[in-house]
């Protein structure tokens, strides 16, 4: 089993445990995606607190461990979103590979979607 598949397996087990313990089995897919989106926003806000985004406050040393912990929290919610959307690790990986290639193509004007070609920005059309 590859590492991404293992992450998905672990997250599915955690989701089942939380659903059972907290009596959440009746929640539908749409509501789960709404809840997970809000949870992700909450975790992003927590991460912001750890990286000195408040220009009006004196900066403090960034707690690297805290930042990494928040990234892992975000990853939990992203994997849970994928699962609740019906994606498995293989589908997520395949979609990531396609989108990654599209993002490279956009940067070089090889995409049908306008506004990304870096050469246009530099006047090198």
Automatic annotation (TrEMBL):
Source organism, top-level taxon: Bacteria
Pfam families registered for this protein in UniProt: dUTPase_2 (PF08761)
Region of interest called Disordered, as start-end residue ranges on this chain: 104-125
Name the UniProt record assigns to this protein: dUTP diphosphatase
Organism of derivation: Candidatus Pullichristensenella excrementigallinarum
